[in-house]
């Protein structure tokens, strides 16, 4: 009995010793948590981290994009745009030129076919692509899988380089639009399209930057490009840029040939603003003030009475009916739209263009030191062609301002007719500007017209010279310039007097 009890006690002691030894060994190798409570705490913290999308995206390890590609590829199409081009008169060479029946033949035409990408946004066959993919096309066809389907261009917007197409049928796979505003620099994205026309393919990268302004469509005020290192090549234009949920956050639009993997996509924020209008009426209607404007800088703020900061936009020219009818004038500074302050030109254009033609906006302006409010009935924004620069003939000098190294002359009737100026444009003409002149440094050209000097109208050479002479060393010289050689461009130029 005692022997049996001793054996049990010895066995228990041996087991206890083995457990203690194992725990010591495991602890030395860091194979166990310090305490059971600590393990629970770490588990809860891990769950909290991965419940947070930001922490989850930072900690998750993506094994493959195959499921994402498999899900979105059926909704991405190749766009074939056929254009008829004239290639000149068919002469056929010197010998055939004199063959009977070949005289006076009409110019020959040839068909060229461009390739881009696009994607379905609804089951009933509505698609999105870039405007430049279908620009000038006489016929458009899209390839879905292996099938070619004729498409109709239903609308386009050159300003944002977007277009919508329609194909017959129903039950198509389509992509959901996502929110590009929620994208963060460093987020994974996938570009899908038909690079070089070789067929559907995917590339993967990250969001490199947001809100890029490129000016490639002619109006930077509407630029909102996502920069990505997911490869975008010729043929990708119009294809979707997708987040990891398979939602469209951009439309692949441009690439930088001078670099590797620097591509750009129109944001889905712009897409969601433009596409409903293109589907509904084929074009985008935007509110239009009819003014030329520029941003303010510190020199302009110091030179304009009543302007206290660089927030706002300076009107340099009143060009169309909405502004004229609403009472806006040159050198007004717009500081608010419907009671809300604006930061710069881009914000003014954005706020106004989001309104519809015919709607009214109230602008708060500063006019030569006075605060005013003007109600403007908006027009329809349109592309304005810049007149072709005119060639001007040199005329005898009429006056000279030595320290500016420039010669000026009065704007007489003969010169006004030669320069095709409206009667409302008064001032003196910069006849010659020296290469080292401060005017040259500011980008002024011969035949630019100085309309005002420090807020005072100058209609003669003597008035100009008096105004210049009144400016002392260290002061600012503020010139209001009209440039007929640049299509009537107007601006305020600030020079610090030496």
Description:
This protein has 498 residues and is an alpha+beta fold. It has 4 domains: 73-87 and 107-166, Thrombin, subunit H; 180-281, Beta Barrel (Thrombin, subunit H); 287-380, PDZ domain (Pdz3 Domain); 399-496, PDZ domain (Pdz3 Domain). It has helices spanning 2-28, 36-51, 53-59, 66-72, 93-97, 131-134, 268-281, 298-303, 321-326, 345-353, 413-419, 438-441, 461-469; strands at 76-89, 107-120, 126-130, 139-144, 147-157, 162-166, 188-193, 201-212, 225-228, 240-242, 248-255, 263-267, 287-288, 291-295, 313-318, 333-337, 340-341, 360-367, 370-377, 379-380, 399-401, 406-410, 428-433, 449-453, 456-457, 476-483, 489-496. Strands 21, 22, 23, 24, 25, 26 and 27 form a 7-stranded antiparallel sheet that branches. The protein has a 6-stranded antiparallel beta barrel with strand order 1-2-3-6-5-4. The longest helix is centred in the first third of the chain and has 27 residues, at 2-28. It is elongated.
Which structural class is indicated by helix and strand composition? Answer: alpha+beta
Number of strands: 27
Major sheet attributes: 7 strands, antiparallel
Globular, elongated, flat, extended or rod-shaped: what is the shape? elongated
* Rg estimate, integer Å: 34 Å
Stretches where pLDDT falls below 50 for ≥5 residues? 23-60, 89-104, 383-398
Number of separate structural domains: 4
């Amino acid at each position: 009995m005692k022997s049996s009890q001793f054996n049990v006690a010895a066995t228990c002691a041996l087991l206890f010793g083995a457990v203690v030894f194992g725990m010591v060994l495991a602890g030395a190798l860091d194979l166990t948590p310090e305490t059971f409570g600590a393990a629970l705490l770490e588990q809860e913290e891990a769950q909290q981290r991965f419940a947070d999308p930001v922490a989850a995206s930072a900690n998750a390890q993506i094994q493959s994009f195959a499921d994402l590609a498999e899900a979105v590829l059926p909704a991405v199409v190749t766009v074939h745009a056929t254009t008829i081009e004239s290639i000149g008169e068919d002469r056929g060479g010197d010998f055939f030129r004199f063959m009977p029946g070949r005289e006076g033949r009409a110019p020959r035409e040839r068909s060229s076919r461009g390739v881009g990408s696009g994607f379905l946004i609804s089951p009933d066959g509505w698609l999105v692509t870039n405007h430049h993919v279908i620009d000038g096309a006489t016929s458009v066809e899209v390839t879905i899988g292996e099938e070619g389907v004729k498409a109709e261009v239903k609308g386009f917007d050159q300003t944002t380089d977007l277009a919508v197409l329609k194909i017959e049928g129903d039950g198509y796979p389509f992509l959901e639009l996502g929110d590009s505003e929620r994208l963060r620099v460093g987020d994974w994205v996938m570009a899908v399209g038909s690079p070089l026309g070789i067929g559907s393919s995917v590339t993967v990268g990250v969001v490199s930057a947001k809100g890029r302004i490129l000016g490639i469509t002619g109006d930077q005020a509407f630029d909102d490009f996502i920069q990505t290192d997911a490869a975008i090549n010729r043929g990708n234009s119009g294809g979707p840029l997708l987040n990891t949920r398979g939602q469209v956050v951009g439309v692949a639009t441009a690439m930088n040939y001078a670099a590797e993997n620097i591509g750009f996509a129109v944001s889905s924020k712009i897409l969601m603003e433009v596409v409903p209008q293109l589907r509904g009426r084929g074009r985008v209607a935007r509110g239009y003030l009819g003014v030329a404007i520029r941003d303010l800088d510190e020199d302009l703020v110091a030179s304009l009475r009543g302007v206290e900061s660089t927030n706002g936009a300076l009107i340099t020219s009143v060009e169309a009916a909405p502004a004229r009818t609403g009472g806006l004038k040159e050198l007004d500074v717009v500081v608010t739209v419907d009671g809300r302050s604006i930061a710069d030109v881009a914000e003014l254009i954005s706020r106004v263009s989001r309104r519809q033609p015919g709607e009214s906006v109230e602008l708060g302006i500063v006019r030569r030191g006075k605060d005013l409010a003007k109600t403007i009935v908006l027009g329809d924004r349109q592309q304005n062609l810049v007149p072709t620069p005119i060639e001007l003939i040199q005329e005898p000098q009429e006056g000279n301002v030595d320290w500016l190294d420039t010669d000026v002359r009065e704007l007489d009737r003969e010169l006004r007719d030669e320069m095709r100026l409206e009667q409302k444009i008064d001032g003196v003409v910069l006849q010659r500007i020296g290469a080292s002149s401060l005017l040259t440094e500011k980008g002024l050209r011969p035949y630019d017209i100085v309309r005002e000097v420090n807020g005072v109208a100058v209609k003669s050479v003597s008035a100009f010279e008096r105004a210049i002479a009144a400016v002392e060393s260290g002061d600012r010289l503020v010139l209001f310039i009209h440039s007929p050689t640049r299509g009537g461009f107007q601006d305020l130029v600030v020079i610090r007097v030496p």
